[in-house]
Backbone:
């Protein structure tokens, strides 16, 4: 095995790209969970966003419209979940799982005529001078726009949750929906909006896969990214910057795994492909071993059905 | 209150019916500015529904309200707050994981920026003698401090009418006195207070007038200072109350001995037990008081076996049981009835029959080599329903369908009828009406007459004074030395409970 073929600078640059879809989806799910909703349908919303974005980008020739369509597609799909769980009071876990299966089927149907097509390429941010800076250049200033959008989104969510009125209300609803209701906040409406935000973000993450990262459409192309996004929200203990860290860590392991394969590591490929998921599980186990800490940071009403009694 | 004070709120003929029950029927009363008006009634008399209508949480079916001469129909709490009506809830509407300032901001329409808000919180809390740190996380505060958060949240909006729903149930006597100082000060400044309680002495102490509700109807209006507590109680209950009587009995040998019991709380915001020691003799009732959240749940869990401790920390008739689980302790006739009825004492969606089986299987021999003996289980459930006057259509009904008081009777009755040697109950009469509460206390006393050792954990001091032989207080997970109940004054008990928990009396 020849480790010298692994270039750390390239590795860091690739990990940011590899992590972006998960980061987008996880940030959206973080907001939904902060409002007290556990939406296990992230995978379904991602893949629906992937095909919506892909189809619209191919038809219009504009990746920009593709991403818009992906966000709308993800949000609409999440609205099904929202209506079922918030208005019809269905069980969130079962509905979320159903949403994933539904999204996978729906995307396969929508994507039948799009297999094997190449999408219009996305504009890359061109920063001639600073992107030539050694080391920092390729890492920080040589990505497509969506990588920066995803980091901006994390900052936005963090600031909104911490400093804004609407963020405070979202946290309050997720913490104690009975009390929020007693104070006159519209619990169901706030949660529906949070769910749709989560859906839109998951859709963007999916479209990033189909339009930039791969870029083409294949059935089931999210391959579990939605589930990793869910795990990363717990990993990040519902804090936006930790979610970013978790996503990049995961992206790093994925990138390293590919690099190790190229370097001819004497380990079967299957083990290397397993590694990111295995490490995610191990980290989650370590994280949740400390019960009191996990219980403190989780929104107290997470996954609970709210029914206004008065 | 002066007789000339202008009328603030008029409630006229309010009626609200829920399926199967009329919560309020043609309720009318008036409150003058600066008046402290009591709303008196048993659990289920319709007090909560009435104030929820005034606060805009529930819409009345018929009837009208007038606030300062103008029609008042709040469609939501926001509208009520805008009109100067504020409410402190019985079960605090606070958010544990948020800090004090954030909690207060959530209850305001247009909160100022956090830094300014923190200054205003300090300001108001100084004025009314309710010190609070705006940056403290609410989950770490004591019950008294949490109530201060609610009160300050209301005061920052300069309310004309302050509704307080059972505010003293979680306070020590000293903290109650501080609260009353604050309320008197507010009243002197012209704020009307609608004070809901079933504690008669408090109402006689604080209120200018009282409206008594029974089964949703107004049964009387009076000046509580001119009535005796017994007269008020009879207006409230509509019948003569039976005070539990204690049969003379001899105190026997030590049955339960707890030595240096320490246990971690299973909850993140819970209180761990620290070196708790006491003994209870056969035929004795040990009353344990304390402000909520000082280790009551943890003590019950450690005695019932939900939380294990060192084997030698809990001894029953000399046998170490500290490391045994709940079922092993049931074999040894150690039973417990926890405070939380739905979800802890009873499984909400299971029938009463099934719930009877859950704790009664061992003592009542309701299983046979792993198979259930349904006729025997049903008979046991029906016996509990019969003997404890549980009002339900039948044992097949889900626990959730019972009212709080009825389920409480079932939960306590289920343990009492299993002839325990040691019985631990937490808040045995919480939310139970006065006559049923008397019946539950009587059954506990009857149990001691048969030689059982009973531990009653409660926040109702009157209840503990009525039935306890000895008395101890839990304060931050530590238990005071038990003292004979006879001759203890409320003031002494308050000091045992930790005094005023660092609160200061209002600088009036």
Residues:
């Amino acid at each position: 095995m020849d480790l010298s073929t692994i270039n750390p600078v390239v590795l860091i640059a690739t990990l940011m790209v590899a992590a972006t879809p998960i980061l987008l989806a996880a940030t959206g799910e973080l907001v939904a969970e902060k409002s007290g909703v556990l939406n296990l349908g992230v995978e379904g919303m991602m893949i629906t966003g992937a095909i919506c974005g892909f189809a619209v980008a191919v038809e219009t020739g504009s990746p920009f419209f593709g991403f818009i369509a992906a966000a709308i597609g993800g949000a609409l799909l999440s609205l099904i979940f929202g209506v079922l769980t918030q208005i019809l009071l269905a069980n969130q876990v079962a509905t979320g799982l159903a949403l994933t299966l539904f999204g996978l089927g729906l995307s396969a149907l929508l994507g039948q005529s799009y297999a094997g097509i190449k999408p219009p390429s996305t504009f890359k941010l061109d920063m001639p001078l600073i992107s030539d800076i050694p080391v920092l250049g390729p890492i920080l200033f040589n990505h497509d726009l969506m990588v920066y959008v995803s980091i901006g989104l994390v900052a936005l969510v963090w600031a909104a949750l911490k400093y804004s009125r609407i963020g405070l209300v979202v946290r309050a609803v997720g913490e104690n929906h009975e009390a929020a209701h007693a104070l006159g906040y519209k619990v169901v409406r706030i949660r529906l909006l949070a769910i749709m935000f989560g859906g839109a973000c998951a859709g963007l993450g999916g479209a990033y896969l189909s339009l930039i990262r791969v870029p083409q459409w294949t059935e089931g192309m999210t391959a579990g990214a939605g589930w990793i996004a869910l795990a990363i929200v717990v990993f990040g203990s519902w804090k936006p910057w930790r979610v970013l860290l978790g996503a990049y860590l995961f992206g790093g392991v994925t990138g390293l795994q590919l690099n190790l394969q190229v370097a001819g590591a004497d380990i079967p490929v299957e083990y290397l492909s397993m590694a990111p998921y295995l490490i995610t599980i191990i980290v989650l186990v370590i994280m949740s071993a400390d019960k009191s800490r996990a219980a403190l940071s989780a929104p107290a009403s997470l996954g609970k059905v709210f029914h206004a009694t008065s | 209150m002066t007789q000339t004070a202008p009328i603030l709120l008029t409630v006229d003929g309010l009626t609200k019916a829920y399926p199967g029950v009329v919560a309020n029927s043609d309720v009318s009363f008036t409150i003058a500015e600066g008046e402290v008006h009591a709303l008196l009634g048993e659990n289920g008399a319709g007090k909560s529904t009435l104030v929820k209508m005034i606060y805009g949480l529930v819409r009345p079916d018929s009837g009208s309200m007038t606030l300062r001469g103008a029609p008042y129909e709040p469609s939501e709490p926001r509208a009520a707050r805008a009109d100067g009506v504020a409410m402190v809830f019985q079960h605090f509407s606070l958010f544990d994981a948020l800090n004090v300032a954030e909690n207060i901001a959530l209850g305001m329409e247009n909160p100022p920026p956090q830094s300014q808000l923190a200054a205003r919180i300090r300001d108001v809390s100084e004025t009314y003698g309710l010190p609070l740190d705006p940056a403290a996380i609410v989950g770490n505060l004591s019950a008294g401090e949490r109530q201060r958060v609610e009160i300050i949240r209301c005061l920052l909006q300069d309310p004309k009418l302050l509704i307080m729903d059972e505010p003293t149930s979680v306070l020590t006597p000293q903290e109650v006195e501080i609260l009353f100082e604050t309320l008197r000060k507010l009243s002197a400044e012209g704020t009307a207070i609608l004070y809901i309680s079933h504690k008669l002495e408090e109402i006689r102490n604080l209120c200018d007038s009282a409206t008594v509700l029974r089964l949703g109807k107004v049964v009387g209006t009076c000046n509580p200072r001119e009535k005796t507590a017994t007269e008020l109680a009879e207006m409230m209950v509509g019948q003569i109350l039976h005070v539990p009587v204690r049969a003379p009995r001899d105190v026997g040998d030590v049955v339960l001995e707890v030595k240096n019991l320490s246990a971690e709380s299973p909850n993140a915001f819970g209180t761990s037990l620290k070196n708790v020691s006491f003994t209870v003799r056969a035929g004795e009732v040990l009353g344990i008081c304390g402000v909520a959240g000082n280790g009551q749940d943890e003590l019950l869990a450690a005695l019932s076996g939900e939380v294990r401790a060192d084997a030698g920390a809990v001894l029953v008739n000399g046998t170490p049981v500290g490391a045994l689980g709940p079922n092993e302790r049931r074999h040894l006739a150690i039973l417990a009835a926890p405070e939380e009825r739905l979800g802890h004492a009873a499984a909400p969606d299971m029938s009463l029959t099934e719930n009877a089986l859950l704790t009664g299987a061992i003592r009542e021999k309701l299983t046979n080599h792993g198979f259930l003996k349904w006729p025997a289980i049903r008979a046991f459930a029906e016996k509990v329903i019969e003997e404890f006057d549980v009002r339900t259509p039948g044992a097949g009904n889900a626990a959730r369908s019972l009212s709080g008081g009825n389920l409480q009777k079932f939960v306590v009755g289920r343990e009492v009828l299993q002839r325990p040697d040691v019985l631990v109950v937490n808040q045995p009469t919480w939310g139970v009406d006065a006559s049923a509460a008397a019946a539950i206390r009587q059954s506990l006393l009857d149990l001691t007459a048969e030689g059982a050792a009973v531990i009653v954990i409660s926040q109702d001091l009157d209840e503990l004074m009525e039935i306890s032989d000895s008395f101890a207080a839990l304060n931050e997970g530590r238990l005071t030395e038990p003292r004979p109940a006879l001759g203890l004054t409320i003031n002494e008990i308050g000091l045992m409970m930790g005094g005023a928990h660092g609160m200061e009396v209002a600088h009036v």
